[in-house]
Amino acid sequence: MINNSANIKDFVREKYGERARQVTQLTVLTNISEAESCADGTCETNLDTSFGAFSNLYAQAELEGLPLEAIASSAGCGNPTALAGLKNGERVLDLGSGGGIDCFLAARQVGQNGHVTGLDMTADMIMLAQKNAASLGVTNVDFIHGEMEQIPLPDASIDVVISNCVVCLSPDKDAVARESFRILSPGGRLHISDMMSLGEVPETLRNDPEQWAACVTGAEDRDAYLSRLGNAGFTNISIEEEEGTARIYDLSAPAVISVKVVAFKPN
Ligand SMILES: C[S@@+](CC[C@H](N)C(=O)[O-])C[C@H]1O[C@@H](n2cnc3c(N)ncnc32)[C@H](O)[C@@H]1O
User: Fold this and answer.
1) Which CATH number goes with the domain that contains 49?
2) 18-71 pLDDT tens trace
3) What's the pTM value of the predicted model, to 2 decimals?
4) Counted domains in the chain
5) How many angstroms does the Cα of residue 29 sit away from the middle of ligand 1?
């Protein structure tokens, strides 16, 4: 756990609340290219379009039919549903669901017999995701306000935990691993996209809230990631670099890369 974890969390919440509010202002726009033009400040918002769905994480066919606000609020570093092998009828939890993009993609895959829950600690993101769900008319998705370090769901109630660029934001990653394990059913799996550092991030950088909230300095190295999941009880853990993603930072410290992480709860 880092020293100023409460402050970091408040800062992260404020940052993503601001993104949700900026996206809400985009409703006057009709397509993603118009939203992209906001990056140079030519429209009413300064939405940062350097990441998420703007950086080609998703195939065009996946994005078809999704509300523009779900696409524009996307702030992930991978595409966890593309490789999670979701099956009809599965119960999915998305940690840090933001505007809901991965929940909506997962909902298509698990069908009406399945269910997807999005969890997010930022009230404005939850409101945006609920608005997106209503405009899509989906009935197998819900969004709950809460923290992934204390997931407000019963033990063994979920088959697959997904997440997209969120675990690196937590100041208490042990709690996230423990809680994910608790709510998974036996045989359940974790299938997440996240950031990983290639070496240990120095303490001074760790305590920079701006870089932490940008999913950079909260990232940990491979050993830390593996031992945390192992200590929580997960088995068959694999961590692989996400190909084709451009989110590699060089802070004159270890580079930080996008990874996909898979782990299982034993039967
Ligand atoms: C980088 S964005 C990713 C959003 C979404 N997964 C996506 O791909 O668009 C991080 C999201 O995680 C949420 N978040 C950060 N820390 C959290 C925590 N401890 N518990 C729940 N949500 C959290 C933020 O509010 C924000 O919506």
Assistant:
1) 3.40.50.150
2) 999 988 876 555 566 665 655 454 555 566 766 777 777 898 899 889 988 898
3) 0.93
4) 1
5) 24
